[in-house]
Design brief:
Layout lengths: L1 H32 L4 E4 L14 E6 H4 L7 E5 L8 E10 L2 E5 L20 E5 L8 E2 L2 H23 L8 H34 L4 E2 L1 H21 L3 E5 L1 H7 L7 E10 L6 E7 L4 E2 L3 E4 L3 E10 L9 E9 L4 H10 L1 H24 L4 E2 L9 H9 L1
Antiparallel strand pairs: 1-2, 2-6, 2-7, 3-4, 3-6, 4-5, 8-16, 9-15, 10-14, 11-13, 11-15, 12-14
Length: 386
């Protein structure tokens, strides 16, 4: 009986450890990509006292949260608030054009300002509110922001050493990761061919082993899913009332109407390629923007003013891609179809992760109680590489 209790305890501990690992990894990827994955946080006091500045919330993806109702707290991609940042506010009403939102601490709605009604396509997540009460994690955001500073400093140091510190060449960091992973994989594979049989015989005597290939596949799946959420979820389509702008600014028919397109990447650490497409006879000054993490960029759209009294509307779509490949290559694939670009980026990211992890750990099963556990990591890496 005691044996079964010990086995149960072991499985429970392993399950909790795995769940914690998945949660932490999802948070890290979400923070890097600037999109809420399971948890997110607020950076202002606009939702006080419900959510204080720096507090975290449980973010349920919009796809599984169900219908949004009045009183729900939502995370949405704003168009005007703080330059188009992700915003966490409460739904206080609904119109034919979309939802009316307001921060609990604000005396006026977002739509009383410049923010248009929020459409469903802008909603990224819904806060978990059992019994109508928002579940908060005090100071979670404060800790994440502090961690982001540390990670940013590390990334800056690494990219500087690699010579890819320039934002326009940020894709080179991804290429370095990809090539390094393939090289490590080749070294590991060669080592496994030479010494594989003896290692397998030695390890077959051990009771507790794990297969690095499964670990690599698991890690890949955990990273790929949030990465795709970060690329797909912020994609949006919105309309620019060119006729209304022309009338309000007394622009003659045929003369250019100018509108600003914003690419916000302030909540991310990785560089994102933001691609704009517009309907009709329009001109976009910079059709794509390579926006480093923590920054915001913008470009101008020009459309001919319609005849007076005509309410012309220009539809603009926005897509985001992680800059793992040269921007020109991503644009070429995007022009074929956005799914082509997503597919190739996913393939490159998968190869990089699999090759890197298997390259470090090898392809043969390893005992959990390895005699190398007390050897410093840098010595193990040196042994692996040399």
């Amino acid at each position: 009986m005691h044996r079964y209790i010990e086995m149960l305890r072991t499985y429970v501990v392993r399950g909790l450890t795995l769940a914690g690992f998945v949660l932490v990894l999802a948070l890290v990827v979400g923070a890097l990509a600037g999109q809420p994955v399971l948890l997110t946080y607020v950076e202002s006091g606009s939702m006080s006292p419900t959510i204080e500045e720096g507090d975290g919330i449980v973010a349920i993806p919009e796809q599984v949260a169900g219908d949004v109702e009045q009183g729900d707290v939502i995370v949405f991609q704003s168009q005007e608030i703080r330059g188009g940042e992700l915003t966490t506010h409460r739904v206080v009403g609904e119109t034919a054009s979309g939802y009316i939102t307001r921060g609990d601490a604000n005396p006026f709605t977002d739509q009383d300002g410049a923010e248009p009604p929020v459409t469903e396509s802008q909603i990224v997540a819904v806060a978990w509110q059992p019994g109508g009460q928002v579940v908060t994690i005090p100071n979670f955001g404060t800790a994440v922001l502090a961690g982001r500073v540390v990670v940013t400093n590390i990334l800056t140091a690494v990219t500087t050493v690699l010579g890819v510190e320039q934002a326009a060449e940020s894709w080179q960091a991804g290429s370095v990761m990809l090539v390094s992973g393939v090289i490590l994989f080749a070294i590991s594979l060669g080592s496994g061919i030479v010494n594989g049989s003896s290692r397998e015989r030695a390890r077959s005597r051990g009771q507790d082993t794990f297969d690095p290939r499964y670990a690599a596949l698991f890690l890949t799946a955990i990273i790929i899913v949030p990465a795709n959420i970060a690329m797909v979820a912020p994609g949006s389509t919105h309309q620019i009332p060119a006729g209304e702008i022309a009338t309000g600014n007394n622009i003659a028919p045929g003369e250019p109407v100018e509108a600003t397109l914003v690419a916000n990447n302030e909540d991310a650490l990785v560089t994102m390629l933001v691609v704009f497409n517009a309907s009709g006879r329009t001109t976009i000054e910079n059709r794509w923007l390579d926006v480093p993490g923590g920054e915001t960029d913008s470009t101008a759209l020009y459309a001919p003013a319609p005849p007076r009294g005509e309410q012309k509307v220009v539809t603009v779509s926005k897509r985001r891609y992680i800059v793992l490949l040269p921007p020109a290559a991503i644009i070429a694939m995007h022009d074929i179809h956005p799914l082509v670009a997503l597919g190739v980026i996913n393939a490159a990211l998968t190869v990089a992760i699999l090759a890197f992890v298997i390259g470090l750990l090898g392809t043969s099963k390893r005992r959990i109680r390895d005699t190398d556990r007390d050897i410093p990591l840098y010595l193990r890496l040196k042994r692996r590489l040399l």
